[in-house]
Amino acid sequence: MKVIYRNLKEGEVKVRVENVDDLWYLSTLIDEGDVVKAETERKIKIGDSTSENTRVVRKKMYLALTVEKVEFSPGTNQLRILGTIVEGPDDIPRGAHHSFGVEVTDELRIVKEEWLSFQLDKLTEAEETSPKILIVVFDREEAMFGILKAQGFEVVAHLKGDVAKKAIDEKKQGNFYKDVAVQLEDLARRYQISQVIAGSQGFWKEYLAKEIPSPLKDKVTYATCSDVSAQAINELLKRPELKTVLEKDRTAKEDAIVEKVLQAIAKEKASYGIKELLEKAKTGSVLDLVVSSSLIQKSRERGLFKEVDGLMRLVEKTGGKVHIVSTDAAIKRIDALGGCAGVLRWT
What we know:
Layout: E1 2-7, E2 12-16, H1 20-29, E3 35-46, E4 55-73, E5 78-87, E6 97-102, E7 107-111, H2 117-128, E8 133-138, E9 142-148, E10 153-160, H3 170-190, E11 195-200, H4 204-211, E12 220-224, H5 230-237, H6 240-266, E13 270-272, H7 274-282, E14 286-292, H8 293-301, H9 305-317, E15 321-325, H10 328-335, E16 340-344
Parallel strand pairs: 8-11, 11-12, 14-15
Antiparallel strand pairs: 1-2, 2-7, 3-4, 3-7, 4-5, 5-6, 8-9, 9-10, 13-16, 14-16
Helix pairs in contact: 1-2, 6-10, 7-9, 8-9
């Protein structure tokens, strides 16, 4: 996600959607009562309603809605924001209902009375995607290494080796793959890399796989690319392997916070369920609150989100940290505890 600007004094943030994951992030960030502004289309009647020449056309315009409902289904690749119009052209009635269909490349402004820390953390997470992913594209004589950034990538190293003169000369080939593996290990340590994408043509990746040591081996995902160049790295950024790697990274982070909760429960230093957590939060006892994205979605659908939102805000205001988990494994474990659980400062 591209954050175009932030004006937190006015409560306003403008963003551009850059991938489908951004739509999920927005579905967790936009709350009932927020004001969302975006370019949209609305049906307009042209001509006298009593005339045979009356027709309905779709007209582009810029509107602001007070949000009533947010819907996101991963299968549709679209986020729907439903609400009532508070700003727009003079001929558009205020208070009329409208909905934004937000898709990749769309821009919108979100205005809140207050942006809480966990919401800003989610915004930053979406903006950065994952800053600790290393990409290498290589063949039998050349390798290029890049670090994934919020926008594209940065090339951080480039290797060239001696090409074997004969196809049967495996020693020189093996030495170059060893050099690539050593460089990967060094960069992974230097940049605290959590995941690696290794791309090459054909079977070159099989040679590299033999040279990569543990535990780095478990962090590598292999993909196919056309050559060794910045363009090849760009190719990998568009391939499904990147989504797999991002999911692995998110899964690792969410598994860690869920495991922290479960260990706290075993030591009787945790609570779970909304009602019990609300009581603990009122005393400032909740240190880490973990909420499943499915609880947020279901509570919105049933008109019960204010209770969940109130719990998250209360934890924030009493110095706790809110974590929203969205990977399947984390959701399943937290939903088994009522959709939310918290590590306590004291019991």
